[in-house]
Amino acid sequence: HLDQVKGEIRFEDVEFRYDDKGAPILDAIDVTVPAGGSLAVVGPTGSGKSTLSYLVPRLYDVTGGRVTLDGVDVRDLDFDTLARAVGVVSQETYLFHASVAENLRFAKPDATEEELHTAARAAQIHDHIAALPDGYDTVVGERGHRFSGGEKQRLAIARTILRDPPVLVLDEATSALDTRTEHAVQEAIDALSANRTTITIAHRLSTIRGADQIVVLDAGRAVERGTHEELLDQGGRYAALVHRDAQLEPTR
Ligand SMILES: Nc1ncnc2c1ncn2[C@@H]1O[C@H](COP(=O)(O)OP(=O)(O)OP(=O)(O)O)[C@@H](O)[C@H]1O
Ligand SMILES: [Mg+2]
Of the candidates 119, 96, 243, which has an alpha carbon nearest to the alpha carbon of residue 191? Predict the structure, then answer.
């Protein structure tokens, strides 16, 4: 149990296999993300980026080494502490067949209307919600109002702002969003990641450039690390990825 989570995340000699006969999906990963700092994880498809992010909220457990939060092995934390400490914004957002307000309050049951609006504003989705015929009472989901992918993502961001976790894991969408939506999503993400430890599985160069630290994965190994400038200067894998663009920027 941790009373006051600061949010330092450490991967210590992490190894991971989905099945014990196969080759490791992650091997000898050593990365520290200081509390409040940001890490961008980049690399080709299948290199283990999403898998690495799963180890923090314990969607999976390491098969070697450990992942720590403020120095405590995440396996030694109770699920409640971990769930409160780590927020995940993934590519798939689930909305309940309920009102927008209820979908947001799922993250914070006692949130006032004002808090809902503030979170939705920061997530760049308030104006859209307010313009619906029933506003925040609009029923969403399967048989209700359908939000687009970019809108759903911003609702998920609003939810996470309400939950206010010290650690954030973001799996950036690879799907192409139109420029205006992408800009809105980016602003929402910037609002969300301020003052939090942020681990982003990054595809957009704009996100990656701003990260305190970039780790390049290749076949489960951290082959390069540094800032955008440092890695460009090295002229290695990262520089090649940036120049080739294809792995970093969604194709349109
Ligand atoms: N549930 C699973 N069971 C078995 N193998 C898996 C599972 N999920 C992923 N893998 C394998 O683990 C490797 C790493 O997958 P991962 O999803 O972490 O890659 P990624 O870097 O996130 O790729 P992408 O950029 O396409 O999202 C891949 O070879 C993938 O096939
Ligand atoms: Mg992935």
Answer: 119
HEC string of the chain equals CCCCCCCCEEEEEEEECCCCCCCCCEEEEEEEECCCCEEEEECCCCCCHHHHHHCCCCCCCCCEEEEEECCEEHHHCCHHHHHHHEEEECCCCCCCCCEHHHHHHCCCCCCCHHHHHHHHHHCCCHHHHHCCCCHHHCEECCCCECCCHHHHHHHHHHHHHHHCCCEEEEECCCCCCCHHHHHHHHHHHHHHHCCCEEEEECCCHHHHHCCCEEEEEECCEEEEEECHHHHHHHCCHHHHHHHHCCCCCCCC
Q: Is 50 in the pocket of ligand 1 (CB under 6 A)?
A: yes
Domains defined along the chain, listed by start: 9-244 (3.40.50.300)
Q: What is the mean pLDDT of each run of 10 residues along the chain (252 residues)?
A: 88 96 95 97 93 96 98 95 92 85 94 96 94 94 81 90 94 71 81 92 84 96 96 94 64 40
Cα 4 to ligand 2 centroid, rounded to whole Å:
31
Closest residue to atom 5 of ligand 1, CA basis: 18
User: Ion ligand 2 — residues with CB under 5 Å?
Assistant: 50
In short, whether 46's Cβ falls inside 6 Å of ligand 1 is: yes
